[in-house]
């Protein structure tokens, strides 16, 4: 007799195995469901090994605060230039005539339109964008996500950071976004950009922080956040958000050979932008500090002596006459290690730190001078626009221009491969050296020497050796011998070009 199915040993074994698998899968699913939920049924944060959680909830709450900026500018038709010369009977003759001759006559105007992005920072109607979005605009219109439009007025602009502040009069309070702390952003953190690419309207893109502290030579205070979130033409002036929905940057520039996004975009961090925007709102302009010095990167040998890592700090190459540091606590040759409580990680950090610090107040600077660290009090003046070209706290060119002196065979003495003579009225005039420059004139440089490798040239003047003035070749040789006996491996020379611009050069003593 055939056994009942329920008591068939093989079938029973198969059923037991299948049941065990089902129970295991059910338990796994239940465990996953439990692990993926928080009390109250809220979904848990995405695993570190998975992609980011959807940003739809974040974006939905921010789209109303991001606006499109439409500008128009009246341009004289004469600015377009004369009509191109085309052959008589050319198929393009009528086209050019219509365009160049039928525009309202000589001296008439036409409008040029452009589009960008911005975001609301105050319900009262204050809106942030880029300066290049609204520059030279005759009319500025703000377009909101619901399609409503309002005329905007310019409150203030700052070309050095490419930021502008606008104001609209709205019958109802606007929805604003908050600034976050860009200093907390780490490479790899998720960020979201919202803007108006190619005039399409509010668009959301997602990416990460690719790098921080980027210098793209856009201005003296470059400190960009680099991101791979898609940023295109029209995104300029729009916000870059963290995953808390806070603005941590203002999208400003891209690198692209095609004009479209290739994943390299740059945003002004809020750590720099917020202070600028606050000043524009309060004063309608920026009021930056001015230290009145020129600086350059710290040579590695001097950094080692100062007890700092290579590349850190800022070397004061000269003090500007009439500036706040003239006859003050800072002098040429000082290495600034920190300023107003902020470590100077590289020389350009000092420029930004000074610009952001209050004026007419005693501020502390930690410096390295004569082999020891000192804390000095400095007071900043206000940086005026007329000073920005020639008298700003600036990075000195580490390689000064060549002098126009000629090599002389009758140099008094050769030191470190340099032919040197005392600077006097005759050789000063022959080399067109400024009256303010004193020291030793370089008449020749030995080929292949350390001096040549460091970029020293005939016509330049050695002013100081190890922060001591020298006016004869013998005095310089004695100073170098003393440094060598003291165990120094290099000598730090202050060198001036014919105009009097100073730089520091470290030359090995071996």
UniProtKB/TrEMBL annotation:
Q: Where is this region: Disordered?
A: 387-412
Record-listed E.C. numbers:
3.4.21.107
Ranges of biased composition (kind: Basic and acidic residues): 387-400
- Keywords of the record: Hydrolase, Periplasm, Protease, Repeat, Serine protease, Signal, Stress response
Name the species this protein comes from.
Answer: Rhizobium paknamense
Which taxonomic lineage does the organism of this UniProt entry have?
A: Bacteria, Pseudomonadati, Pseudomonadota, Alphaproteobacteria, Hyphomicrobiales
Q: What is its main location?
A: periplasm
The protein in question is named Probable periplasmic serine endoprotease DegP-like
Gene Ontology terms: biological process: proteolysis
* CDD domains in alphabetical order: cpPDZ1_DegP-like
| Enzyme class per UniProt | hydrolase
Signal sequence span per UniProt? 1-31
PDZ domain location is: 280-347, 416-465
UniProt subcellular location = Periplasm
Q: Which reaction does it catalyse?
A: Acts on substrates that are at least partially unfolded. The cleavage site P1 residue is normally between a pair of hydrophobic residues, such as Val-|-Val
Which family is it part of? Belongs to the peptidase S1C family.
Q: Mind listing the GO molecular function terms for this protein?
A: peptidase activity
């Amino acid at each position: 007799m055939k056994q009942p199915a329920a008591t068939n040993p093989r079938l029973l074994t198969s059923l037991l195995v299948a049941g065990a698998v089902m129970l295991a899968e059910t338990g796994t699913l239940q465990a996953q469901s439990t692990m993926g939920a928080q009390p109250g049924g809220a979904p848990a944060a995405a695993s570190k090994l998975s992609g980011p959680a959807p940003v739809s909830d974040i974006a939905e709450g921010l789209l109303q605060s991001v606006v499109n900026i439409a500008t128009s500018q009246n341009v004289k038709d004469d600015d377009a230039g004369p009509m191109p010369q085309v052959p008589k009977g050319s198929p393009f003759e009528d086209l050019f005539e219509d365009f160049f001759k039928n525009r309202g006559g000589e001296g008439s105007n036409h409008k040029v339109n452009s589009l960008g992005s911005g975001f609301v920072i105050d319900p009262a109607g204050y809106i942030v964008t880029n300066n290049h979005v609204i520059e030279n605009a005759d009319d500025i219109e703000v377009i909101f996500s619901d399609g409503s439009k309002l005329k905007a007025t310019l409150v203030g602009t700052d070309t050095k950071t490419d930021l502008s502040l606008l104001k609209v009069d709205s019958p109802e309070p606007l929805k604003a976004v908050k600034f976050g702390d860009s200093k907390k952003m780490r490479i790899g953190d998720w960020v979201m950009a919202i803007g108006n690419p190619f005039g399409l309207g509010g668009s959301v893109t997602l990416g990460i922080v690719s790098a921080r502290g980027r210098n793209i030579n856009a201005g003296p205070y470059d400190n960009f956040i680099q991101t791979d979130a898609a940023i295109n033409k029209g995104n300029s002036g729009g916000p870059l958000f963290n995953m808390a929905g806070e603005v941590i940057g203002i999208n400003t520039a891209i690198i692209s050979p095609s004009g479209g996004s290739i994943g390299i975009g740059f945003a002004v961090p809020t750590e720099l932008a917020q202070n600028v925007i606050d000043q524009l709102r309060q004063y309608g302009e920026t009021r930056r500090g001015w230290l009145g010095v020129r600086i350059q990167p710290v040579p590695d040998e001097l950094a080692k002596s100062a007890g700092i890592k290579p590349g850190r700090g800022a070397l004061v190459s000269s003090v500007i006459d009439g500036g706040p540091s003239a006859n003050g606590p800072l002098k040429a040759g000082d290495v600034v290690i920190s300023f107003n409580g902020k470590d100077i990680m590289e020389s350009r950090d000092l420029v930004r730190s000074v610009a952001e610090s209050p004026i007419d107040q005693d501020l502390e600077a930690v410096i390295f001078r004569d082999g020891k660290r000192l804390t000095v009090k400095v007071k900043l003046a206000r940086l005026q626009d007329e000073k920005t070209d020639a008298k700003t706290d600036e990075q000195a060119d580490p390689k000064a221009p060549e002098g126009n002196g000629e090599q002389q065979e009758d140099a008094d003495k050769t030191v470190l491969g340099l032919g040197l003579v005392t600077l006097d009225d005759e050789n000063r005039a022959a080399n067109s050296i400024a009256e303010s420059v004193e020291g030793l004139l370089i008449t020749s440089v030995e080929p292949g020497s350390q001096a040549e490798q460091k970029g020293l040239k005939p016509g330049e003047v050695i002013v100081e050796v190890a922060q001591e003035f020298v006016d004869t070749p013998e005095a310089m040789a004695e100073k170098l011998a003393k440094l060598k006996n003291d165990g120094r491996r290099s000598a730090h020379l202050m060198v001036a070009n014919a105009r009097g611009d100073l730089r520091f050069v470290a030359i090995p003593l071996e």
